[in-house]
Amino acid sequence: MKVPALSLESVSKVWQSDGREPVRALDDFNLEIAREEFVVFLGPSGCGKSTLLYMIAGLEETTGGTILDEGVPIHGPSFDRGLIFQDASLFPWLTISDNVTFGLSLRGVSAAERERTAEQLLRSVGLAGMGDKRPDELSGGMRQRAACARALAVRPKILMMDEPFAALDVQTRTKMQDFLLTLWRESRASIILVTHSIDEAISLADRVVVFTARPGKVKAIVPIEMERPRPPRDPRYHAYRDLFTDLLADEVDRAFAEQESRR
Ligand SMILES: Nc1ncnc2c1ncn2[C@@H]1O[C@H](COP(=O)(O)OP(=O)(O)OP(=O)(O)O)[C@@H](O)[C@H]1O
């Protein structure tokens, strides 16, 4: 049997902060992700989606359970697991090329090799000729594409994206989704994308993992059995949208009730 790219075995996380009630963010979370699979995390606000990405990235420890990267327990960050945030988080003082190859410079890759890689990656994300610009000279969509290029430069096996397109307008967002599918096929990485958007989940995912309200657990795992692209007019698309709306409704109510009870 093939070893999964990632295995989450009974993972839990309790956040402890001084002088505050501990927060049970995740509880008994179980999931396997295959190589080259595109998985979307969908769930109500505060159910631990970002927390889970940080733990998979190795930036936070689990409180219980195990996370295995190709069968090996994760205890810290690795170039094999890249993470992209909503706001692109490029270094404002570096050029786009230097941002893209930042990880490679940490690895000691030569300047000539870095330049070649930057050129090639910027071309593949539609930013050819933009390498000398600074992040604030680019639009939001362009910055997010540069962040994708930076994450891909170190050839991660797993690419995690935390609401990467949430800050973009609807047209740019749709274009970015198409672009991401192309990039995913080329990179052959597994992708985990966090979103609040049911449409984004249906358009992109091989499987959608729906979270319960906090503490986050797996509520449902839904494979999207439609070829891509997936037109919203397709009756199957409608059926998925109804299904996710129903699955989320209870959890959003629960999350809201819990917030109210804390006031
Ligand atoms: N560093 C931290 N210290 C203490 N509590 C935290 C920390 N990070 C997150 N939390 C808490 O853990 C819970 C889960 O947060 P998390 O950001 O993972 O949820 P989320 O599902 O990504 O939410 P959203 O969809 O709103 O981004 C929340 O109650 C949050 O306040």
Automatic annotation (TrEMBL):
Residues 6-238 form the ABC transporter domain. CDD domains: ABC_NrtD_SsuB_transporters (cd03293). Gene3D superfamilies: P-loop containing nucleotide triphosphate hydrolases. PROSITE patterns: ABC_TRANSPORTER_2 (PS50893). SUPFAM superfamilies: P-loop containing nucleoside triphosphate hydrolases. The keyword Protein transport does not apply. It comes from the Bacteria. Keywords: ATP-binding, Nucleotide-binding, Transport. One of its GO terms (molecular function) is ATP hydrolysis activity. Belongs to the ABC transporter superfamily. This is NitT/TauT family transport system ATP-binding protein. It comes from Aurantimonas endophytica.
